[in-house]
Amino acid sequence: MQDQETNRVQGMIPGGPGARAPLNMAIHEPHPQPSPKATIGYWVCTFVVAIPALAAGMTDVLHLQPFFGLLLHLGYPAYFATILGVWKILGAIVILAPRYPLIKEWAYAGMVIDYSSAVLSHAASGDGAGAIVGPALSLVAIAGSWYLRPRSRRLPYR
């Protein structure tokens, strides 16, 4: 009993004076309010991602040029454009809408998969660097939007 009391006083048992949180327990520290520049950067990056995703999604669903032709050129079947288009539209809506941070994480992940697959598909099909620039810049904008997103659009710390 004496050893437990000594350990508690020395802070070795949680709850004693000078005790530290266990390593597996996250300490919640609120994010500081974002600067106006960060907020502007977030919205610029988000619109640079969302507006083209909406447009590309619509052209994919409707099988319109130029994006539908690119999918066929890369060897994907025509029905894949419809599937991809629906997910692009939903992803763009989700990252623009307020709240639902978990769904936003999934939307960002889906967009990263979409655009990184586009980069790899263009590279594998022998398309030049010009075909890779668009999806690569979209990846940069997605990363910027994700990194700069405000507290209300983030998952809480656990």
Q: How would you describe this structure to a colleague?
A:
- By secondary structure, this protein is mainly α.
- The chain has one domain.
- The protein is built from 6 helices and no strands.
- The chain has helices at 2-10, 36-61, 67-73, 78-96, 101-124, 129-148.
- Helix 2 (36-61) crosses helix 6.
- The protein is elongated, with a radius of gyration of 23 Å.
- The chain starts with a helix and ends in a 10-residue tail after the last helix.
- Mean pLDDT is 85; it is low at 5-13 and 24-29.
Specify the biggest β-sheet.
Answer: none
Round the mean pLDDT to the nearest integer and report it. 85
**CA gyration radius, whole angstroms:** 23 Å
**β-strand amount:** under 5%
**How would you spell out the order of helices and strands?**
HHHHHH
Category from helices, strands and their pairing: mainly alpha
Unreliable spans: 5-13, 24-29
Q: Judging from the principal axes of the Cα atoms, what is the shape?
A: elongated
Total number of helices: 6
Provide the helix percentage: 55-70%
Concise account of the structure shown:
By secondary structure, the protein is mainly alpha-helical. It is built from 6 helices and no strands.
Short descriptors:
158 residues; mainly alpha; 66% helix; elongated
Topology:
Blueprint: H1 2-10, H2 36-61, H3 67-73, H4 78-96, H5 101-124, H6 129-148
